[in-house]
Amino acid sequence: MKKLICATLAAAMALSLAACGSSDSTAAAGSTADSTTATAEGASAPIKLGGIGPTTGNTAQYGVAVQQGEELAVQEINEAAGYTVFELQFEDDESDPETALNAYNNLKDWGMQILLGTVTSNPSLTVGAEAANDNLFMLTPSASAEDVALTGDNIFQMCFTDPNQGKAAADYISEHQLGSQIGIIYDSSDAYSSGIYEAFVAEAEANGLTVVAQSSFTADNKSDLSTQVTQCQDAGADLVFLPIYYQEASQVLIAANRTGYAPTFFGCDGMDGILGVEGFDTSLADGLMMLCPFSAYGEDETTVTFVNNYKAAFNDEVPNQFAADAYDCVYAIYQCVQDGVITPDMTASEMCDALKGAFTTMTFSGTTGEGQTWDENGMISKEPKVYTIQDGAYVLAEGETA
Length: 402
What we know:
Helix content is about 40%, strand content about 20%. It is α/β, with parallel strands linked by helices. The strands form three sheets. It has a seven-stranded mixed sheet, sandwiched between helices.
């Protein structure tokens, strides 16, 4: 598959990406990514891909990245093939379950055959239940709650599950002796944060790590996290684990800087994006460590090509791991097209049955890792990487290889 990805990307590099979609990162929901790609004479109708995620609201940066990653992959594949292999329609759900369900129904009316989404976990749980009832294949790029995949045998994840991230983080911290007194700051109202937190605490105890502070906040009480930082500082934590998103993490770093508190900060994939927080002094993130499957600063051919194409298509934006996972979602489906697993004339239910069998037996390599596989529950297995932020860039941490 690595050969497939590289060959397709290389072909795409020679083609103009001007029609890849709006360079405005808030492209309107419901837009299609193949509006200028003509179907070759005699080619069959395109496979209709639906996308759902927040393109407005507090989590819009995640949804826009996913939308753009999907659009780019569709554009590359269609141009390399010379006809419209995929048609994509993306709907805004504002990270709200009810809105996501409405978006799902709109896409069904449009004729969606495969769903790439949703982006966040709570909407995915709601939409996943409907997709399971409809026997429609759902591959989410970034909804990492374990319960999402367990909703039905047709629900698959491209991202790490929350428990896997918590366990891997605790193992890495223990193995590399990054801290002896551990503090934790997490969002108790968020399924992503709580899931990682619970797995981390269990694995930390198994590894003999001492957790000296566990401080939480909620979605309704996160405008000032200085109290949580002070609790970790007063407890003597020399490493603070942050299973939270980058917006809240930037507040933690600002609060720690005010008091001169300088432990090692360690986060997970939700941390990706912290260097792009508006008004944030990125020097405060120096030394921050995180588990993440993708870095735009990687030097391998697949990453370099993807990043260059993404920047060319979207006004020089640097892709984050949400965009990379979404991009990989499309290419994983394309692998099944090339292998003859699915054809456009299939019904959505027929495609679902075929893809369930394929995904539990196939191996896929893309921007977020080589040799990726899925288990019978739809959960992915791929190698996590640990990065340290240095001088405004991600650098592989000690012991990690590209």
